[in-house]
User: Fold these one by one.
Assistant:
Number 1:
Amino acid sequence: MPNTTDIKNAPIGVIDSGIGGITVLRELLRTCPTENFVYIGDDANSPYGTRTAEDIQQLSLALIKHPKLVSIKALVVACNTITAAALDDIAQNYEGPVFGVIEPGIEEVLATTKNNHVGILATTATVESSVFDRALKSANPDIEVTSVGAPKLHEFAENNLDLVLGAPTQEIKECVVEHIAPFIDAGCDTILLACTHFPPYEALIRDIVGPDVNIIAPSVNTAKALRDTLEEKDLANQTTAKPNYEIISTAGNDEKFKKFSELLLK
Ligand code: DGL
């Protein structure tokens, strides 16, 4: 049994289907700056967003058995698609605190929308799971949810993050316009970026929807939930050693992960 100091110093595990969860890691590092993180991206099996729920459950349960996650003190499921399909299975198979990205996103949406018209931008698998529709409607039956699956936006961010962030091509801009149009048509006052790959599009979406629409990334609330739980459970790292993070790809394509992290974590 590790002693209390060892547990507090232990890293926090972060799992994702691939590279996109680095946008969540960015928020975790900002909100919990004294913690250490081990990030595992399952690029060997990515994307998850076009897979079946059964497939995603199996892959996720295998992912949490990664040797690098053996001595973590908490687990963050950075991926919306994994959270939607497998959070319960993961929680049953890992005994420490587990954090997904869907509940924090839903809480933020409920606290933000004024006109009860909400847009969800996600992967096809997350849209098909209807997890957001169910949760939002059970919290507030008056909410109207417009969901858009956006595999093409996922693909651009995956392969051309530098362009998305810095110099979007006409093709990227048009793709964003096309995917945001249903939210504008439905009069959404709040859009949830319910895929790890979508926070980098925030500026482009803002240009289209104007200043009055709320654009939410669930990772902000997830990071706060992690920080608060670590405090409550007396698990926060209190050493003064420089915190660090390790990013591992199950496909071993470290250069791709390095490039993506350099763009997001600089
Ligand atoms: N990380 C996933 C999410 O947040 C998207 C990537 C994938 O399809 O694997 O939904």
Number 2:
Amino acid sequence: MSEIGLVGLAVMGQNLALNIAEKGFSISVWNRTAQRVRDTLARAQAEGDLPVTGFEDLAGFVASLERPRRIILLVKAGAPVDATIEALFPLLEPGDVLIDGGNEWFPNTERRAKKAEEMGIRYIGMGVSGGEEGARHGPSMMPGGSRDAYELIAPVLEKVAAQVGGPCVTYIGPGGSGNYVKMVHNGIEYGDMQLIAEAYDVLRIAGGLSNDRLAEVFADWNAGELESFLIEITARIFRKRDGDGYLVDAILDKTGMKGTGRWTVQEAAEKSVPAATIAAALDGRYLSGLKNERVRASRILTGPQASAAADPDLVDDVRNALYAAKICSYAQGMNLIRAASDEYGWNLELGSIARIWKGGCIIRAAFLDRIKDAFDADPKLKSLLVDPGFAAELSARQASWRKIVGLAVSNGIAVPGLSGSLAYFDAYRRERLPANLLQAQRDLFGAHTFERVDRQGSFHADWDELADGV
Ligand code: 6PG
């Protein structure tokens, strides 16, 4: 009998199965196409005679599992998960546990959990981050759903997860909260990647930095406050050669996506949470997708002549701008998680979430320790921006940040992430915004009413009558 089962042996499933086996848990695996089962068994053999048992029939797979059965699903989100569950349900018994490890839209998890519950089956929607490498050697995992089911699977997950100051897994909360947190992780991932791309654009266009120099700069940054997986791999990317040139220069400037970043922005809109940096990252991907249009537009529309000027402070200023914008982006993501937690009564702990993102996942970064500390010190903290430590850092970096946004604007370099974050910061720190004028307009054309700064209540003015206020 195997201690655990895994269904779905594409890249993530195959690597996670081997990771689980390597940590000493016997595992049964099944996949719709049998070749992947055979591939997984061959790898299990080659990578250390790992305790993996493969099945080509689903009933045999289910029958091979210790009870209560614990089955991880790593099949494509959406309809394929529904189809897999439909096939599994008749083979399961009350008390069994299903753990969906895909990037699933959280209401789908809640719908399935409800159906599973009617049959006495416990259901978990678990975000898994870290790509192929993470799945094989230690991902960050965000399981949400049935708490007692989590307790049953926790000993496995805790060993399999990345280990950075403890295992990078914790019970997230009820319902679809695990998927939700993973979705926001991906939104933050989009934001980080956009900000890094903008920093690259400023450095190469306004600073004239070569790929070799960019590799050095990013490697240096990775030794400081920006230390993170994405900065580290960016340094590596600039070193990769392609014939006489560099591979990065040969890659088409058109970003693909699977959609979790879009969900994050949709959710931010749904929950009325401002998320300028993440939204800018999503727009950046859409604009990149208009490659043919952009090529045509580049022959019609002109901008300023960008010029590379020698500025000894440029690299440090870009680093400061990037770091400040990154704080804004994480603040937006955390606020979105909190808004969902409040609305759905999930009771999520933002400090613990920052902790499990410290290792294994794509957005792992040294500064997550600081985020954890900020929310541990004040779980009700309204925004990371007003944590005393982050507030001081933003303040120390804002001159650089403004300089870089100004430089980009005057050179015609689009920096929607850096500038959108700065606008977010500037709007958030202002006691009074021009929203009074919007309210006046709304009241004038639509009698939508307004509040006043000096009196309680809801007011409507006769805007044709110039003499009177309200
Ligand atoms: C992770 C990633 C992963 C995601 C890819 C692709 O945490 O390991 O977030 O889950 O699927 O990064 O995302 P896009 O195709 O949307 O860029």
